[in-house]
Amino acid sequence: MGLCYDVLCGRHGLKQYRNGWADGPAYITQCPIQKGSSYTYDFNVTGQRGTLWWHAHIFWLRATVYGAIVIMPKQGTPYPFPRPNMEVNILLGEWWNTDVEEVVRQGTKMGLPPNMSDAHTINGKPGPLFPCSEKHTFAMEVEPGKTYLLRIVNAALNDELFFGVSGHKMTVVEVDAVYTKPFITETILIAPGQTTNVLVQANQPPGRYFMATRPFMDVPIPVDNKTATAILQYKGIPNTVLPSLPQLPAPNDTEFALSYNRKLRSLNSPQFPANLPIKIDRKLFYTIGFGKDSCPTCINGTRLLASLNNISFVMPQTALLQAHYLNLTGVFRTDFPDKPPTPFNYTGAPLTASLGTVHGTKPSLSKLAFNSTVELVLQDTNLLTVESHPFHLHGYNFFVVGTGIGNFDPVKDPAKYDLVDPIERNTVGVPTGGWTAIRFRADNPGVWFMHCHLELHTGWGLKTAFVVEDGAGPDQSILPPPKDLPAC
Q: What's the pLDDT at 3?
């Protein structure tokens, strides 16, 4: 399969087994496609099915350059839920009334967060709650008694989002292209980079009903809190009928967020097992922090940075996968620490001292042995402020075995892990002032990006990468790069 021309792009959630060359992140797996040039990504989707997506993967271009990828089950293989009468892609996004690259440049120059978006969108349109005409509203027509599968993607750069359909309940059946134990809800919570499939039955009095999305943010940080809407319209109902809005949770409803995520469970059936690693070879503990760095040209002489284990990622000038494959020296180090250099009360009183982070001249990566099993605990901190963080690991799915509020306790918390049917996905939210534990098997050789999927935090340095070594078998090594791979 080939996708995406004339822009560096990644296919979010596709594992790209042994083929990181088609993964897409700038300077991680390849160098940017030069202006006026084009490049075709060749890859296969063997062993995967469900809703994923693709997006630009350099700077803030993914604000508008994105789309859904739907991989259908093998012919003759039914869904593990009642077959819907129709399937509809729903892409949630953000919109700026100006050039997003200029927004980023201005923020970087001033040392402050870039301006928030001017609107949220559903399938590229903000809806009638904004001063827009009817054509700027997405609408889907339904028929009484029929069932619809909504394939929902959060393509927003910076916001976790609630989504609901007025008057209708939704049955969650899949997240991040992995089937789940079905459960019914009136609202879903979906972080940037995540996908969620829900079944909606057209079982209400015929009319027009708003689908709506707005942000979840449970700390006092400014966000674009505007509500985007689309319309679910029963066949034969005129456009003059006014739709009703769904009752979404309060923007800071932490309890709903925690409760919703606890309901997500892998299907773990004989046909769709949860192959969870039980014996762990390598345990990692990464703290998520914010800091300030000297910047003479910025306001107050400082700029914001983000770090994992007090290390802020440094973008290389040579793609990391190319350097690893070609054994180039001096491009990156493999000394990323397995735990923070200095333990502290991570979620205690706000910390404002010693906020400088380490950022050398080349990126520091973590090396993993092929086929080793890994447990990674991501811990939010109160450096400057606590905040939720959606993390995405390229090249892999992982199992979310535990999550909690406060500091992770390595003695007590593992005893509460779900080792039976934990949810499997490729992007997970670390709760505000809390932690999340994930497990995966390092069976995909290459260099794989791990980063916060809030573009703002990724730009500040909240990212790292894993170097997964080749295995001993003939089909356990990185495939050769394509001849037309963009050069640096």
A: 46
Task: Give the distance, in angstroms, between the CA of residue 347 and the centroid of all CA atoms in the same chain.
Answer: 23
Give 315's DSSP letter. Answer: -
Tell whether pTM > 0.90: yes
The residues pairing with 424 across neighbouring beta strands, listed in sequence order, are 399
Phi, psi dihedrals of residue 399, rounded to the nearest 5°: -105, 130
Q: Where are the alpha helices (DSSP H) in 295-393?
A: 320-325
Q: What is the predicted pLDDT for the residue at 2?
A: 46
Burial 237-267 (b: 16+ CB within 10 A, else e): beeeeebeebebbeeebbebbbebbeebbbb
By three-state DSSP, how is residue 55 classified?
strand
Alpha-carbon distance of 379 to 436, in angstroms, equals: 7
Residues 162 and 229: their CA atoms lie apart, in Å, by: 12
Q: Facing residues of 32 across strands?
A: none
Residues in the chain with pLDDT values less than 50 = 1-6
Hey, which residues does 392 pair with through a beta bridge?
Answer: 427, 451
Q: What is the DSSP letter of 50?
A: E
Tell me the chain's radius of gyration from C-alpha atoms: 22
First CA to last CA across the chain, in angstroms?
A: 25
Contacts of 488 (CB under 8 A, 6+ apart): 31, 317, 318, 319, 322
Q: What is the pLDDT of residue 485?
A: 87
Both tokens assigned to 267: 């299907």
